Amino acid sequence: MALRAVLPQGALVSSNALLAVKDLAAGYGATQILHGIDLSVGETEIVAVLGSNGAGKSTLNRTISGVLRARRGSIRFADVAIERERAAAIVALGLVHVPEGRRIFPNMTVRENLQLGAYRRGKPNRVANLERVFGIFPRLKERHAQRAGTLSGGEQQMLAIGRGIASSPRLLLLDEPSMGLAPAIADLIFDSIAALHREDRVTLLLVEQRVAEALESCDYGYVLETGRVVLEGTHRTLTADDRVRRAYLGM
Length: 251
Prior knowledge:
By secondary structure, the chain is α/β, with parallel strands linked by helices. It has helices at residues 57-64, 87-93, 110-118, 126-136, 138-142, 153-165, 183-200, 211-217, 235-240, 242-247, and strands at residues 19-28, 31-41, 46-50, 72-77, 80-81, 95-98, 171-175, 203-207, 220-225, 228-234.
């Protein structure tokens, strides 16, 4: 089997990674969800995090982005330790989280939502950033003056991703971008994500329930079970693995 060995607790992750997570533990109250996660994302890569509901995928993203405080371990982004930083400081470094559930401001217009995303300390090109979002999601340009709460589910997901893009991220964390969407709309979202990576070379960490599409688009993937990395490898290696094929691809 061509899988890279799962790193034992305490092993070193890649020293030249844009994002390097080592021995990460996190949870809620008395419940620990993540148990010693090691993960790395190289510059301009797409890395997928796969697993069933409750595996700890969203908790991982929340901890990396500073929404949830790590209980143990280290998180380095662009060679800066961020495991104790506040979420706003992490965004200012260029690590932007698009959370599950969209989290848009429903009573604000599409443009106003995007302008909030474009407001990032030290990033003056807000007009250009908004035009870039409208280039990726033309439907948002058509609805720029419409209240965000009146958009369809797919359009709201475009807006949530667009708000992240508007902040000129170095790394974009995408948490279940296709959740609750019709297949045709989910395909459109994936096409837009692929275009963003291809044209802008944005680094992506993708948590996604559509495993086949996530594996197809990623450079590398991690499979989580009960808060632990149980498999990792390239998209080709994971797609060929019998455990992944049975558990996630229905083969």
